[in-house]
DNA sequence: AAGAGGCACAACCGCCCCGAT
DNA sequence: GATCGGGGCGGTTGTGCCTCT
C-alpha cells in the first residue's frame, strides 16, 4: 500500500518561503514551541505542508544557525567526518554546531566533492595542494573509529547526566514536545529572547529580501526569493550603516517582536552571548547538546582538528575509501 | 549586449525509523 | 505483535545568479 502524501497536493503552496510566511511560522512556534508539525498549517493558516514547515524551521528559521562562509576548520571536519561516516549528514552536522545537515550536504555536493575529486586526480603529481592533502601513510582506520566511538560514548554519557540533572531542576513551566531549558529563565525572559532570536533570523532574511526587492518585486509578489540573505548579512552586519530601508525593517521587527536591536545579528555573537542560558529554541536547535555535551563536542572538535593536523597527509586515502 | 553554461542553495520527494495505540 | 502516523534523513530537483564567450 502506498502511503498518501503528508498533505493534500491541492491547495498546498510550494516554492520559496516569503517573509510573511516566515513570520507566521515563527510566531506560531514562539507560542507553541516546535513539534506537532501536523497542526502547524492548520493552526496558522499557512498553505504549506507540515513537512515544509518543519524543514523551513529546522534549516533556516531556527535560532543559532550559521550559514555560508565555511571556515577551513569546518571544511576539514566535514571532510574527515564524511570520510568516516559517509553521507550521514545529520550525524556530521551534530559535530558542527550551528550548521544544518542540509547546509553541509549542499556544501559537500556543490563544492567539497568536486574539490576532493580534483585533489584526487591531481594527487598523482603529489603535494599539488601544499601539505594539506596528500597520500603517504595508510591511516589506521580502526583506531580512528575507536577513538571517535569513545568520544561519542563520552558525549552520550555526559548528555544523559546533563538531562537527568535537568529533570531535577526543571519543572512544569515547560512547553510540550521536545522543548526544555537548562536553567530556568523567567517567562518574560524566555519569551522575549525567543522572539529576538527568531526575529533575528527573519530580519536577516528580510534585509536580504529588501536588497533584492528593487529588481522588481513587490511586497505582495511571491516571486522573490530569500536565499543568500544569511550569508550576506553575516558578512555585512557588523559595522553596517543603517540605511533607511533596513532601519524601517528593524523598527518593524522591534515593534513586532519586542526585540531591542537586530544589528548585532551575527550568529557567532549570538551563540556566544546566549550559550550559558539556553532558551527553548537554542536548546531545540541542537536537542542533544547540553553544556557538558558542548564541552565534549569541543573536545572532539579539537581532537578532530589535532588529528587532522597530523593525519592530513592521510586524508586522501580515507577519502578514496568513499569514492 | 546577449546567450550558454556552471554554480549555489532552497525546497521537495520518497523512504525509513520509531513511538503510540 | 501489527498497524499507523509523525518526524527524520538523504537524494534530487528547480531556480536564480554569476561568469564566460
Automatic annotation (TrEMBL):
<feature type="domain" description="HTH myb-type">
    <location>
        <begin position="66"/>
        <end position="116"/>
    </location>
</feature>
<dbReference type="InterPro" id="IPR001005">
    <property type="entry name" value="SANT/Myb"/>
</dbReference>
<protein>
    <submittedName>
        <fullName>Myb-related protein 306-like</fullName>
    </submittedName>
</protein>
<keyword id="KW-0539">Nucleus</keyword>
<feature type="domain" description="HTH myb-type">
    <location>
        <begin position="9"/>
        <end position="65"/>
    </location>
</feature>
<dbReference type="GO" id="GO:0009733">
    <property type="term" value="P:response to auxin"/>
</dbReference>
<dbReference type="Pfam" id="PF00249">
    <property type="entry name" value="Myb_DNA-binding"/>
</dbReference>
<feature type="domain" description="Myb-like">
    <location>
        <begin position="9"/>
        <end position="61"/>
    </location>
</feature>
<dbReference type="InterPro" id="IPR009057">
    <property type="entry name" value="Homeodomain-like_sf"/>
</dbReference>
<dbReference type="InterPro" id="IPR015495">
    <property type="entry name" value="Myb_TF_plants"/>
</dbReference>
<keyword id="KW-0677">Repeat</keyword>
<feature type="domain" description="Myb-like">
    <location>
        <begin position="62"/>
        <end position="112"/>
    </location>
</feature>
<dbReference type="GO" id="GO:0003677">
    <property type="term" value="F:DNA binding"/>
</dbReference>
<dbReference type="GO" id="GO:0005634">
    <property type="term" value="C:nucleus"/>
</dbReference>
<dbReference type="InterPro" id="IPR017930">
    <property type="entry name" value="Myb_dom"/>
</dbReference>
<keyword id="KW-0238">DNA-binding</keyword>
Amino acid at each position: 500500500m502506498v502511503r498518501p502524501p503528508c498533505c493534500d497536493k491541492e491547495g498546498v503552496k510550494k516554492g520559496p518561503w516569503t517573509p510573511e510566511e516566515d513570520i507566521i511560522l515563527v510566531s506560531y512556534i514562539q507560542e507553541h514551541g516546535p513539534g506537532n508539525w501536523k497542526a502547524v498549517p492548520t493552526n496558522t493558516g499557512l498553505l504549506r505542508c507540515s513537512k515544509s514547515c518543519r524543514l523551513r524551521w529546522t534549516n533556516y528559521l531556527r535560532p543559532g544557525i550559521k550559514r555560508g562562509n565555511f571556515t577551513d576548520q569546518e571544511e576539514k571536519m566535514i571532510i574527515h567526518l564524511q570520510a568516516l561516516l559517509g553521507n550521514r549528514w545529520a550525524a556530521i552536522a551534530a559535530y558542527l554546531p550551528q550548521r544544518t545537515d542540509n547546509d553541509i550536504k549542499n556544501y559537500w555536493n556543490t563544492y567539497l566533492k568536486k574539490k576532493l575529486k580534483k585533489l584526487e586526480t591531481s594527487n598523482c603529481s603529489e603535494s599539488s595542494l601544499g601539505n594539506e592533502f596528500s597520500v603517504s601513510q595508510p591511516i589506521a582506520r580502526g583506531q580512528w573509529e575507536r577513538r571517535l566511538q569513545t568520544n561519542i560514548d563520552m558525549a552520550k554519557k555526559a548528555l544523559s547526566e546533563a538531562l537527568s540533572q535537568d529533570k531535577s531542576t526543571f519543572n512544569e513551566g515547560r512547553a510540550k514536545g521536545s522543548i526544555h531549558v537548562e536553567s530556568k529563565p523567567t517567562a518574560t525572559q524566555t519569551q522575549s529572547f525567543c522572539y529576538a532570536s527568531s526575529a533575528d533570523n527573519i530580519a536577516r532574511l528580510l534585509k536580504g529580501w529588501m536588497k533584492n526587492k528593487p529588481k522588481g518585486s513587490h511586497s505582495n509578489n511571491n516571486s522573490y526569493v530569500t536565499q543568500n540573505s544569511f550569508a550576506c548579512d553575516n558578512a555585512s552586519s557588523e559595522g553596517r550603516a543603517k540605511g533607511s530601508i533596513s532601519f524601517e525593517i528593524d523598527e518593524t521587527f522591534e515593534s513586532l517582536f519586542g526585540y531591542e536591536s537586530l544589528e548585532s545579528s551575527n550568529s557567532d555573537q549570538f551563540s556566544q552571548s546566549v550559550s550559558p542560558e539556553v532558551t527553548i529554541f537554542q536548546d531545540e536547535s541542537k536537542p542533544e547538546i547540553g553544556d557538558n555535551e558542548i564541552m565534549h563536542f569541543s573536545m572532539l572538535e579539537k581532537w578532530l582538528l589535532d588529528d587532522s593536523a597530523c593525519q592530513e597527509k592521510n586524508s586522501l586515502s580515507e577519502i578514496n575509501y568513499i569514492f
